[in-house]
């Protein structure tokens, strides 16, 4: 070919040189960044998939951090609750010792009372000062707020966990479908017959024998049984002339037993029955008149009023959970299923115990159940309720920590490994392949440069025709 205005060979060499230089630049970029996809043009579909996976990785990583932070919060609360539990056990020991009043002087009981007062102050201090990052944990600030609770229907409402909608509330509907029952035995005669009679009364607390003279009336028998109800768990009353003997508590585990030892009287044993209750349409687990429901959205325990628990005709009530609780974001996405809520009630002495038996604060020197006042049996009941209450809070927090937080961290770490591996497969550069491609591109660029030089020199051959 003897044309010199257009050098087709040089154009072809330039085209291939530009292509190979671009390929060389790509290989150098990938090796310098470690990424196979540095811009959308590198792999549009791959970039979309990679960005989605990167979003998941960011969410999972933060969820792991959130879970570890939640674990720290629970550890802080658990440490303080453990100390409260130890203090209550010390009060238990002091109360037991003070009850031995026949062997203790008034001065010793007063000294015990001083220790109890100091312990109660310590419990209140722990309740008011335990905090994590400025948030009080045990003063009731993380307990749930209720509205519309009808005291004639529900004696005690305890919300352990509830997923409350943002800026919303939860309505809790309660319905009694079968009545709670006491164990009951009826004596239909008007009293003891013509001969003295001895009977044995037994209940869940204990057993006692009672002896009655001939012709004793049912009112006298009822009075005698009621005098011992703290020892037996059995009460009595006269209804339409009949003597009704019944357990003092409701439920299938509660019973009353009457046995005639001598003379003529009724004999028998009867157990109570648990109420049947639905809460928000879910069948509750019921012990006596205490109903509990545990679902993913609601964990609640209700101590129903006795009259309400026996009223299946109009046994319907409702109330609202308007706020409170601690919300932990444990999922990779901010959505309802990724959030876990738990309530932490106050452990102040005015909150430990309940309205039925009394509150721990009443054990102080000026309280109705102080040691110096001598009402140690009632003090024991309050302590039992308080110790159980703290133990239940610790148990719930421990279950939340072990079965929710820790398992969530383990699950998220596995997910993080797999999602990161998938993202790496799409986006990260394969250094072995890229190094080989770099070497090929370098050789081609060098070869193209040499070929271009030769192509540029080709037209010079035309000069030999002019000679």
From TrEMBL:
Domain Flagellin N-terminal: 4-140
Chief localization: secreted
Keywords for the protein's UniProt record, in alphabetical order: Bacterial flagellum, Cell projection, Cilium, Flagellum, Secreted
GO CC terms of this entry: bacterial-type flagellum; extracellular region
GO MF assignments: structural molecule activity
Ranges where the Flagellin C-terminal domain occurs: 381-466
Protein's cellular compartments: Secreted; Bacterial flagellum
Record-linked InterPro entries: Flagellin, Flagellin_C, Flagellin_C_sub2, Flagellin_N
Role: Flagellin is the subunit protein which polymerizes to form the filaments of bacterial flagella.
Record family assignment: Belongs to the bacterial flagellin family.
Protein name, entry field: Flagellin
């Amino acid at each position: 070919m003897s044309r010199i205005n257009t050098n087709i060979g040089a154009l072809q060499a330039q085209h291939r040189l530009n292509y190979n230089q671009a390929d060389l630049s790509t290989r150098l970029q990938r090796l310098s960044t470690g990424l196979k996809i540095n811009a959308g043009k590198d792999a549009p579909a791959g970039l979309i998939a990679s960005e989605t996976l990167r979003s998941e990785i960011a969410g999972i990583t933060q969820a792991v951090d959130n879970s570890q932070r939640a674990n720290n919060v629970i550890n802080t609360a658990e440490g303080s609750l453990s100390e409260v539990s130890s203090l209550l056990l010390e009060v238990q020991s002091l109360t037991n010792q003070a009850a031995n009043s026949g062997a203790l002087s008034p001065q010793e009981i007063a000294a015990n009372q001083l220790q109890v007062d100091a312990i109660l102050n310590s419990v209140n201090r722990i309740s008011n000062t335990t905090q994590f990052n400025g948030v009080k944990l045990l003063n009731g600030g993380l307990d749930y707020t209720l509205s519309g609770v009808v005291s004639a229907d529900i004696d005690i409402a305890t919300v352990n966990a509830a997923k409350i909608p943002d800026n919303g509330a939860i309505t809790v509907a309660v319905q009694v479908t079968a009545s709670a029952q006491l164990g009951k035995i009826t004596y239909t005669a008007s009293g003891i017959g013509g001969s003295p009679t001895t009977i044995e009364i037994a209940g869940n607390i204990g057993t006692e024998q009672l002896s009655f003279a001939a012709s004793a009336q049912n009112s006298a028998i009822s009075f005698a049984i009621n005098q011992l109800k703290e020892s037996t768990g059995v009460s009595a009353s006269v209804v339409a002339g009949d003597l009704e003997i019944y357990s003092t508590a409701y439920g299938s585990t509660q019973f009353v037993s009457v046995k005639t030892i001598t003379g003529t009287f009724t004999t028998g044993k009867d157990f109570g029955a648990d109420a049947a209750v639905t809460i928000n349409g879910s069948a509750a687990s019921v012990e006596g008149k205490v109903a509990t429901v545990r679902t993913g959205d609601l964990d609640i325990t209700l101590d129903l009023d006795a009259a309400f628990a026996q009223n299946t005709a109009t046994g319907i009530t409702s109330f609202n959970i308007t706020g409170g609780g601690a919300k932990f974001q444990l999922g990779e996405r901010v959505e309802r299923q990724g959030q876990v809520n738990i309530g932490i009630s106050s452990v102040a002495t005015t909150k430990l115990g309940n309205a039925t038996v009394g509150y721990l604060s009443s054990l102080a020197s000026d309280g109705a159940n102080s040691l110096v006042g001598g009402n140690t049996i009632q003090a024991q009941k309050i302590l039992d309720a308080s110790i159980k209450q703290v133990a239940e809070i610790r148990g719930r927090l421990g279950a939340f920590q072990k079965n929710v937080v820790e398992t969530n961290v383990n699950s998220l770490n596995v997910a993080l490994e797999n999602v990161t591996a998938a993202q790496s497969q799409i986006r990260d550069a394969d250094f072995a392949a890229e190094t080989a491609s770099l070497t090929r591109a370098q050789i081609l660029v060098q070869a193209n440069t040499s070929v271009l030089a030769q192509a540029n020199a080709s037209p010079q051959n035309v000069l030999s025709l002019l000679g």
